[in-house]
TrEMBL record, chain A:
GO terms for cellular component: mitochondrial small ribosomal subunit. This is Ribosomal protein S14. GO terms for biological process: translation. Gene3D superfamilies: 1.10.287.1480. Keywords: Ribonucleoprotein, Ribosomal protein. It holds the Pfam family Ribosomal_S14.
From TrEMBL, chain B:
Residues 138-235 form the Small ribosomal subunit protein uS10 domain. One of its GO terms (cellular component) is ribonucleoprotein complex. Residues 45-92 have a biased composition (Low complexity). It comes from Penicillium desertorum. GO terms for molecular function: structural constituent of ribosome. This is Small ribosomal subunit protein uS10m. GO terms for biological process: translation. Transmembrane segments: none annotated. Pfam families: Ribosomal_S10. Residues 22-99 are annotated as: Disordered. Belongs to the universal ribosomal protein uS10 family. Keywords: Ribonucleoprotein, Ribosomal protein. The keyword Ribosomal protein applies.
Length: 117, 293
């Protein structure tokens, strides 16, 4: 499995900014999913299509299950682009709650102010 | 359908350049309304929506008015910085109130005054009157700051006037308030949290029954002079006559002509034609073998 994961790793680091092993891994997963998405969808379609012969459908099931784990969309997890954390990442800013607070207080996020009501 | 569908873009731009000329020739000192257009709105002496700071700051400055011994030398000081070089050349009589209305001040000096187009900046934006009121383009401006969005909406309206486009707005749309609450530190200290918010302000500027080309020119002009911190979104509607099907039928010949070079590439190669029908191929041994795999 780990050997196969190398297939999806680009030869050169194609990330900039904050870089982390886990960030790179997540990026690899995203790339792998992007590349194999049509194939996955085709197999999924074949599995669900009742008009196809059972043998074909079973083969498609096998093929889909034998695809690499990195090609699954469920492997993708949003990570903070400023710190690499995977928890409480805001979708709007793609950063962690702590980074969000720091950057908001520093005025680096346009329009974000301290609220009181 | 429109009143000026036949007018080309060049004609509009010509009109833009022509506009200031009759102001100068027909100008009367006390009438700041440009006499060139017949249906201009009544000029409000106090500019409500001009974001230019001197215009709003000047009526507030009460220094010479408070003192009855205001000398003529003190009077021009109330004029904004931009008008000061022109205004200071002449002295006013002592009997007049030292702070005058904007309309009077701008037209007070006949031989030396700002051009009408510059004076218009201090007044409310001029507007064309819509003949049919058919909406053609919705422009939505968004920003996090009131100043920016107000300024740019004003700019857009003025630009539309000179492009001969009837405009309505700016309509203040509901603000978009986004709030986030984050713990100040670790999870253990969940009781101490902090609130942040981002308020997006929106303004809607609507163009009514304008020439589509002029609308495009207006949008391009606004994009060219885009203001910092202001986002723009435009919905443009095109209107056609009721017999759209006829127009499409008429344009078939044109479309076919345009497609001819593309369609000429399609077809079967002459050297590739196999003998027999498609069923021969399907029933052949080779094809069947392929299918089995």
């Amino acid at each position: 499995m780990t050997k196969m994961a190398g297939l999806f790793r680009p030869k050169k680091l194609d990330l900039s900014g904050f870089v982390n092993t886990r960030l790179i891994r997540d990026n690899n997963k995203r790339m792998a999913f992007e590349q194999t998405e049509p194939e996955r969808q085709a197999l999924r379609y074949m599995i669900r299509n009742t008009s196809l012969p059972g043998r074909v459908r079973a083969q498609a099931q096998l093929q889909l299950s034998q695809m690499h784990a990195y090609t699954r969309p469920t492997q993708i997890k949003n990570r903070c682009v400023a710190s690499g954390t995977a928890r409480s990442v805001f979708r709007d800013f793609r950063i962690n709650r702590y980074q969000f607070r720091m950057q908001a207080l520093a005025g680096e996020l346009p329009g974000v102010k301290k609220a009181s009501w | 359908m429109f009143s000026y569908t036949s007018r080309s873009l060049i004609g509009v731009s010509k009109c833009l350049w022509k506009a200031p000329v009759p102001f100068r020739s027909l100008s009367s000192p006390t009438q700041p309304t440009p006499p060139e257009q017949e249906k201009t709105p009544v000029q409000d002496p106090t500019p409500t929506r001009t974001p230019v700071t001197p215009a709003e700051a000047a009526p507030v400055a009460p220094t010479p008015a408070a003192t009855p011994i205001a000398t003529p030398t003190a009077t021009p000081a109330t004029a904004p910085a931009s008008t000061a070089p022109v205004a200071s050349t002449e002295a006013e009589p002592v009997t007049e109130p030292s702070v005058k209305e904007w309309s009077e001040r701008l037209g007070a000096f006949e031989d030396s005054r700002l051009p009408r187009s510059v004076q218009a900046i201090y007044l409310r934006p001029l507007r064309r009157k819509a003949e049919y009121g058919l909406p053609v383009c919705d422009l939505q401006l968004r920003s996090y700051s009131v100043r920016n969005v107000e300024f740019f909406a004003d700019f857009a309206i003025r630009a539309a006037y000179y492009l001969n486009l009837p405009v309505s707005g700016p309509v203040p749309l509901p603000r978009i308030v986004e709030r986030w609450t984050v713990p100040r530190s670790n999870f253990v200290h969940k009781k101490s949290q902090e609130n942040f918010e981002r308020i997006t302000l929106r303004r809607l500027v609507q163009i009514k029954d304008g020439n589509p080309q002029a609308v495009q020119a207006w949008l391009a002009f606004l994009r060219k002079h885009a203001f910092y911190g202001v986002g723009m979104k435009a919905n443009v509607w095109e209107h056609d006559s009721l017999d759209a099907g006829k127009a499409m039928d008429a344009s078939v010949a044109e479309v076919e002509e345009a497609l001819r070079p593309e369609l000429a590439r399609f077809g079967q190669r002459k050297d590739n034609s196999a003998p027999g029908t498609i069923f021969d191929t399907l029933n052949s041994e080779r094809f069947a073998e392929r299918k089995r795999l």
